[in-house]
Design a protein that fits this description.
Strand order of the largest sheet: 3-2-5-6-7
Number of strands: 8
Structural class: alpha+beta
Radius of gyration: 25 Å
Number of domains: 1
Number of helices: 4
Order of helices and strands: HHEEEEEEHHEE
């Protein structure tokens, strides 16, 4: 009799663990978070980086942004042309799976939170990588005089 109760209790615990895994893995806000690190690199390094949201740094640089951000990245270094890159967002595969998990398991509230928080999004391009062009060709001129 005790053995049957023990097996029943273990079955209930196992079932709850499996159901919880599916419910919590379906929420992109929990599994992915609402922020992403944007990495900015340049050739040559040590270029100034300015984001349209006011953040600044020097390459290689990283910035923690909301996954649904839209920013303009300006990279500049003395003697080189300024580079400007637009960073947008798109629905990530992992984010779409999380959203689908919410819908399948009845988490309408979770689906709304994921959609509003941007947890289903990824920044693109990420990383940002630019090769800065010299302002003028660095050629040495030899005089024949």
């Amino acid at each position: 009799m005790k053995k049957i109760k023990l097996i029943k209790n273990l079955s209930v615990v196992l079932l709850l663990a499996i159901v919880s895994t599916f419910i919590f893995s379906g929420c992109a806000s929990i599994t992915r978070g609402t922020q992403e690190v944007l990495v900015v690199n340049s050739e040559p390094m040590n270029a100034r980086v300015r984001l349209s949201n006011g953040m600044v740094g020097v390459t290689p640089a990283s910035f923690k942004l909301a996954r649904d951000s839209v920013v303009t990245v300006t990279i500049e270094k003395e003697g080189y042309r300024t580079a400007v890159v637009q960073v947008n967002h798109h629905t990530a595969n992992a984010g779409a799976v999380g959203m689908a998990g919410n819908i399948v398991f009845g988490g309408i509230i979770g689906a709304g939170v994921d959609a509003m928080s941007g947890a289903t999004q990824d920044l693109t391009p990420n990383p940002v990588y630019v090769i800065l062009e010299p302002v003028c060709g660095r050629r040495e001129f030899v005089s024949n005089f």
